[in-house]
User: What shape does this take?
Amino acid sequence: MSDAASTSSEASQSPISSPTLSTSTVATVVENMHPSQEDIDKAAEFKNGANAHLLKANYEEAINLYTKAIELDATKVVYWANRAQAYIKSEMYGLAVADASKAIAIDPNYAKSYYRRAVAYAAIAKPKDALKDFRMLVKKAPADKDARAKLAECDKLVRKMAFEEAIAVADPPSAFESLELENMVVEEGYDGVRLSEEMTEEFVQDMVERFKNGKTIHKKYVYQILKAVKDIVYNEPTMVEIDVKEDQVLTVCGDTHGQFFDVLEIFRRNGTPSPQRPYLFNGDFVDRGSWSTEVALMFYAYKWLYPNHIFLNRGNHETDDMNKIYGFEGECKAKYNELTFKLFSESFSALPLACLIGGKYFVLHGGLFSDDTITLDDVRKLNRHARRQPGQEGLMMEMLWTDPQPEPGRGPSKRGVGLQFGPDITKRFCENNGLDAIIRSHEVRMGGYEVEHDGRCVTIFSAPNYCDQQGNLGAWIKIEGKDKDLKMNFETFTAVEHPKLPPMAYANQVMR
Assistant: This one.
């Protein structure tokens, strides 16, 4: 089943663009819609323009034009199905599910609608729902080999997750307990720098060079790094408070998503982590990009080397359900082994969820909460060790998943997980907690960053040309300790060349 935009002009009914319409409401609205010939023709022009933008990865403009087509003529299934595809490419999976559902209500025989809804469900870790749609897809398109392959892979994923759930225990033993590092031998033929009981700058530099040349490090060293850093971060508070000293410049980075060579570009231009140059990486180190183990191990090695000068917040992709779909689990197994993934998983669950910079900036991966009474003290008191995975609701989930919106109040998530919060919510939270702003990541910004909500909400994203197709800049924030106001200064950069390995190379087949 191709991911390309549909260009046919099948005229089967569809409703207007409210994402809250139920399937029954959709059918009723469609039945009563009678666009004029002028509207039909103009809508087709918008659709053709949207298709061109979709093929060029101009997803925002594609969505705008599909929306205009739908506003003029909501009777065409292809408009809804194609906008669903643009939403998928923009990671607005909740909206993609809504549009694909509308398309199915209009024409239950249009196979691409099932495909796109299945992919959107899989993307937000709802493989059981995806499986139902892949089964329907195969019924509608029995000769489609890709559809059959996706069905088989999704069925395999559901069975695996069901098995893991069945054998799970309430308080599983630590994977680190099985390690016998003292009995592991690094062969004489290993051509890298040796690691003893403490991390060294020499080891980090050698490790980075090995990664640049397509090499790995010895499994014993992987395990040592993971064990050391897990112990360090486990003992950090849920919200780490950072005091930027006068001789320091703190750098805050957003999502890096396994784009190892772009992270090296940040270090080339801005300098590597050090006591005078501390870094805060605000989650989503892994998944999608095909050098996620390299990025995570490099961050961890620096954390071990400078535990008080590099800070790591957990993102929504430092979680098992995302890692099983978006590639990190597969990459760990391909480059090292399954135990490596289990150790990473446990270390991710130990990561702090937020930082507070100079009492002024609250930094977390996703965003704010469904409850206005939540304060920084509630975050401080949150026992993140009580559950390894964030689940689908609760404070931890909201910290990893929520997004800002321009409208006041709160709204449903365009992703299908979490919620959205408006400028009034941000203003109230900042005023109640004595903050200047919140700094979050979690979303691509074409300029690398965005300041919104009257300056109180800053999004920083550090993976340029995300997934080799978005064309966005990356960015980081610099905060100088000698500036008593701790003003944020933004730096942007473009993607650099990398070896010919595509993004998502290790992802679950359902997502490829």
